[in-house]
C-alpha cells in the first residue's frame, strides 16, 4: 500500500498494466490532426483489430492504414516502406506521417526510429510513435504521439505568457475552452495537438501547460524539463466541480482571481435529473483507460458510492489533486482482476465501468455495465461537456429500469419442452 501525503492511500496490486492495444488511439487522433496520416507496421492481427475495433469510430475516409508484415518479412529487420509512403502521398497528401509500432515488429527489434528517419523528406516528416501493447496502456499512445510533436513546436520567447492545453479534444470542445480562457483574461497559446501540423503551439519558459487528459504525464513532464514550461496542478475539467477548480487554478497562475461557484451550482442544476439517479448508486471501476480517477471523483461529487476506483497506472504527482479529492475511496493501481471479480460478486455494484473485453461477461451475469472506452471518444470536458458526461453514466441505468423484471420460470418455460 502506498501512502500519498494529504490524500487517499493507493493499494498496489500485481496485475497487468494495460488491457487494450495502443493502436486504438489512432481512432481519435487521425480525426483531430486533420492533415496527418497514421501508418501502422503490423500483422494481420493488427489489421483485424483496426477494422473491427475502430469501425465504430470511422465517419469519413480514414487517414490511417497498415503495412502488413508477412511471414517472409519476419527474417528482415528493416522492412521497405517507400512504396507505401508514395501511395499515401498520392492518396492523402499529408503534412506529417506517424509511423506506429506494434507488438510483432517490436519483438523483432525493428529499428523504428532509424526507419522513420530514412523515410523522412524535407517536405514530409515521418515520426516514430511507440504504440504497442507491450509496455503502455492504450491511451498512453496519445502521449507518445504528442512527444513526437515536441521538436516541431516553436520555442516561445521568455515573457510571452500563455496557456497551452495538452490533450486531444474535438474542435467544438477546443473552441469552448479557448473562449472560456479568453473570457477570463487568459492568453491562449494553443492546443497540443492542434487540428493541423503547421499550427503547433509555441512553448517556452513562460508557457503554462494545462493537461486536460489524465494519461499525459510523460509529455507534460518532458515539456517542463526541456522547455521549462510550467505545468498546472489541478483537477481535470470533468464535471461541474472539476471544471470550476480547473479554471480557478488556471486563472490563479495568471494572477487572475475568479470565483466560479455560481457557475458550478448552475451546472449541477442542469444535470439535476441525472444526479438524482446517480445518488447512492454503488459504482465499481475496473482498470482500463487511465481516466478512472477524475471519472470516479465526478461520481463521488454527484453522491454516488464509488466502491473501488482502479487504474492501470497512477502518477502520484500528476494525479495528486484527483487523489486528494478521492479521500475515502478505495483506489487500486494495477488491480488483480480475479480479486475484483470476487469483490463484485460479493458487493453487487449497481454499475460497473469496465473494458470492452470484460463488459459482456459482466452483463451475462446480470450486472449493469458501461464501456470505459466510450469516455475517450465523447466530448465530456469543461462546462460544455457536463451534460454528456452525466448522461454516459445514467444511460445504462435508465436502460435497465425500462427492462421488464427477469422471471426465470417464464424463461425456462420458453426453452424447455412441455411436461405434458
TrEMBL record:
Originating gene: bchN
Molecular function terms, GO-annotated: 4 iron, 4 sulfur cluster binding; ATP binding; metal ion binding; oxidoreductase activity, acting on iron-sulfur proteins as donors; oxidoreductase activity, acting on the CH-CH group of donors, iron-sulfur protein as acceptor
Cofactor(s) this protein cannot do without: [4Fe-4S] cluster
Stretches assigned to the Nitrogenase/oxidoreductase component domain: 21-397
Organism: Prosthecochloris aestuarii (strain DSM 271 / SK 413)
InterPro entries listed in its UniProt record: LIPOR_BchN/ChlN, Nase/OxRdtase_comp1, Protochl_reductN
Job description of the protein: Component of the dark-operative protochlorophyllide reductase (DPOR) that uses Mg-ATP and reduced ferredoxin to reduce ring D of protochlorophyllide (Pchlide) to form chlorophyllide a (Chlide). This reaction is light-independent. The NB-protein (BchN-BchB) is the catalytic component of the complex.
Binding site for [4Fe-4S] cluster: 21, 46, 103
UniProt entry keywords in alphabetical sequence: 4Fe-4S, ATP-binding, Bacteriochlorophyll biosynthesis, Chlorophyll biosynthesis, Iron, Iron-sulfur, Metal-binding, Nucleotide-binding, Oxidoreductase, Photosynthesis
Cofactor, how bound (note): Binds 1 [4Fe-4S] cluster per heterodimer. The cluster is bound at the heterodimer interface by residues from both subunits.
EC numbers: 1.3.7.7
Pathway: Porphyrin-containing compound metabolism; bacteriochlorophyll biosynthesis (light-independent)
Name of this protein: Light-independent protochlorophyllide reductase subunit N
NCBIfam families xrefs: DPOR_bchN, PRK02842.1
Similarity annotation: Belongs to the BchN/ChlN family.
Catalytic activity: chlorophyllide a + oxidized 2[4Fe-4S]-[ferredoxin] + 2 ADP + 2 phosphate = protochlorophyllide a + reduced 2[4Fe-4S]-[ferredoxin] + 2 ATP + 2 H2O
